[in-house]
Amino acid sequence: MLKVGFHIIELLVMLYMAFNVLYITIYAFSAYFYKHTDFSKLLLKKWNKFLVLVPAYQSDEIIINTVKQNLKQSYPSNKYHILVIADGLKKETINELIKHPISVIPVKFEESSKAKSINTVLAITPDYEYDYTVIIDVDNIMHEKFLERMNLRLQNDEIVVQGHRMAKNLNTSFAILDGISEEINNQIFRKGHIALGVSAALSGSGKAVNFHFFKDSMRLIDSAVEDKEIEAVFLRNKIKILYETDAIVYDEKVDSSAVFAKQRRRWIASQFFDFNLFIFEGIYHLLFNKNFDYFDKALQKILLPRILLYGLVTIFSITIFFDVFMFGNFFMVCFLLCTMSYIISTPPQYFNTKTLQAAFRVPQAFYLMVIALFRSKNANKNFIHTKHQYISETDKNVDNSN
Q: Which site in 20, 243, 363, 391 is 20 to 30 Å from 216, CA atoms measured?
């Protein structure tokens, strides 16, 4: 009887693993059918005006450099405006910021959150002053042609386009692993989805959103996972989330195990926020509203974080040599498919000796993800601040020649 119960549990685990691996494999291979935008063939009909919001929470060490770098856009200077939302910035930092052609709005909350900062600014911004809002994090640097390319993609009044977040720094093993993770995300959850006509995943930064829709949608959002909530609003309303791989935003990657663990707590919490409501809503919208995009997002709530998935299929596949599981061969197939999906989703520039060295830190990353899983409770309700550092010119993995 005990043996039967064990095999039933094994079967359930097998089915769950099969779903995870099949999902990422389908979209990983579909990404190769993603069509790059030929900007030379796009007709410029108008110059959209962008409001670039930079929520800056206690980020004195990096915000000035961020502003300087993001003022180097090739886009007409009178068609975009950078606004720094200064939450907890020092007076000296604010005084330095206002020397640049930007706006700075200080805010203060009992419990800070990115959503509260954004909503405060949107509430005092005239409705028809801007066409689109661009959200960038305090450590983000837009490629000098980011707004130019976004504008061309938005000539037909699209609602939302997610840009390509790319690693700014590859200075440590954890930064390399984080950079690869970002690119796998882009390949599977953006390129692969767009290639199959499904909405791309939305990030917390590097996106351009119709100003009026964004303002209206953000009003009721105040959690620490505002990007996931606003994504749900878009999909619920059948708004297609587009993706532009050549509109690049460079993002600072975590460079230590401590920061990695802290950041993943929030990520895991966002993965499972309102899980029960979301999955049942997804089924409802599929059956009654023919909304596959929302259903697909609901399916993603069931997926394990990729490092956890890979760690588990590796562990289960190893047991084939000890004849522990009835379906040992199946777990080996899962391991091979998972490995293949991750490899083909990793850009060629990462295939080097530094990445090989970083690969030896994967077991540690798996362990930290397991710990983060058990410590993620309420992380979607409380703001988790990640300390950033100034990235010098020589440390940046920034190439504006594209």
A: 243
